[in-house]
Amino acid sequence: MARTTEERLEWLETTLALQDRTIEQLNEALIAQQRTMDRLENGVQALADKLRAFDTPLEEGEAEEPLPPHYQMSGPK
């Protein structure tokens, strides 16, 4: 059974409207994902900065704690 031109046009318009809505939904999802990625990247950067702060070299004059006696290696006598 052949469709009339009007039926075909209506089907095309309906399909186009559904595709437009799908594209809009995908765009919204992409924007939300990008916001999440930005937030996570900022969090990772903040954690990396904090970690680097703990990894600072000792300032001149600050001595490392000496090793306990049981950690010190004694050479052969």
What does this 3D model show about the protein?
65% of the residues lie in helices and 0% in strands. It has one helix at residues 5-54. The protein is rod-shaped. The protein has 77 residues and is mostly helical.
- Stretches where pLDDT is under 50 for at least 5 consecutive residues are none
> What is the 3D form?
rod-shaped
**What percentage of residues falls in helices of 4 or more residues?**
55-70%
Record field, number of beta strands: 0
Q: First CA to last CA: what distance?
A: 105 Å
What string, H for helix and E for strand, traces the elements in order? H
Query: Oligomeric status of the shown chains?
Result: single chain
What is the makeup of the main sheet?
none
Count of DSSP H/I helices: 1
Q: Give the overall average pLDDT.
A: 88
- Structural class call reads mainly alpha
What percentage of the residues does DSSP assign to strands (E)? under 5%
Coiled coil: 23-50
Keywords: Coiled coil
Region (Disordered): 57-77
Give a quick summary of the entry.
The chain has 77 residues and is an all-alpha fold. Helix content is 65%, strand content 0%. The protein is rod-shaped, with a radius of gyration of 33 Å.
